[in-house]
Amino acid sequence: MPVPSNLNYDAWLGTTPEIPYTEIGVHPQDSFENRPGWLRIEQFGAGMITGWGSHHIDTAHWGMDMEHSGPVEIWGKAEFPKSGLWDVHGAFETHARYANGVTMTVSGALPNGVKFIGDKGWIFVTRSGAVTASDPGGPQIDPLQASDPKILTSVIGPNEVHLLKVPEQHRNWLDAIKTGVPVSAPAEIGHRSLSTCLLHWTAMKTGRRLKWDPKAERFIGDDEANAMLSRPQRAKYAI
Fold first, then answer.
1. Among 23, 48, 118, 147, which is 20 to 30 Å from 80 by CA?
2. pLDDT per residue over 88-124, tens digit each?
3. What pTM was estimated for this model as a whole?
């Protein structure tokens, strides 16, 4: 398709390979209500595992005290389109085991949030309010639930774990710029959240159990998987 005069398509492609322009593969110019097409193309991303996974895995890591680390083993499966422009994963279920013994399951078929399951019950947390009509997991549900309502009203003792308390995320970001207060998800935590999503994606693509060294940030004894940790970059836009 002809490239619109208001789009520098070469710069839009950036480091990724040069491919023909299609409006649906970028974003329809007459609508901003739906998810853009590039989210469904692996050249530009990995699908919902990173799109929504990065929003939830940081919370899961926080609750597991693993926000500066990552899993040690990952496995699972996913369906991928056999034809057409869209090539990111479809239905999937993947798992990750951590050095502290916790196992995390991620699936597009589960409610869109994070569920912590312990020996005395469970707590579920998610966003309050849907972002788009195409959000996974079905209709939006209560943002904070527990197996026992008393869990939600219990008081954290002075000698128990107290997490960082911050206001709404945009306010937190602005306060950090103005006064230097801590942000709830600094760059390193964001990296660990997204890199874990990509570990799940790699397990989807390879179809086998993968061993991961979270300190070295390399797969153990798997050259094929390690080759998937980076992508070639066009020299003009290489970082």
1. 23
2. 999 999 999 999 999 999 999 998 899 999 999 999 9
3. 0.91
